[in-house]
Amino acid sequence: MDMNKFSQWMDLAKKYQTGDFWDGIFDQSSFDEWMKTQFDPNQSSDTARKSEKRKNFPPTDIIVTDGEILVLFDLAGYVKEHIHLSVSGTKLLIKGNNHQLMAGEVIQQERYHGPFERVIQLPEPTFPDQIRAKFTNGLLYVSYQRQFLKEEQVNIE
User: Fold this and answer.
1) Where in the chain is the domain with CATH 2.60.40.790?
2) 52-71 pLDDT, tens per residue?
3) Looking at the domain that runs over 57-147, which CATH code has it been given?
4) CA 72, CA 129: separation in Å to the nearest integer?
5) d(CA 108, CA 100)
6) End-to-end CA distance of the chain, in Å?
7) How much is the pTM?
8) For the segment 104-125, what is each residue's pLDDT rounded down to a tens digit?
9) CB 75: neighbour CB atoms within 10 A?
């Protein structure tokens, strides 16, 4: 790919497209990281893939119901003693460590092993004493009751 032509095309496209159109297309931080990994001869694509995988590990689902918020982490092969969970307002931090189960030469490795840390943005704030966490069959269920169920009127003086 000719980077000069690509850069010229981007500059031209930005002139004709206004607003936050490009925000959804290219989140600047992730775009810069992608560019660095694609065109930096010092960084292998395998290293870049591992870095990207680690940043999005563990896979996470967030479900909001009428009365509860549920965050589900996929942590197959981990044990709860090696997982740390903390909360501050709307930020949930999960970190942990896991070691490869078997010794020997790895021919194919798709599952992530090693230390991880991820901050999840919660849809509503909570306190640590209001969170319930349960680890079952490689899934970590984290839930808390919603406190802001409806919009409330504010008086203006």
Assistant:
1) 57-147
2) 556 788 999 999 998 999 99
3) 2.60.40.790
4) 18
5) 13
6) 61
7) 0.61
8) 888 888 877 788 999 999 999 9
9) 22
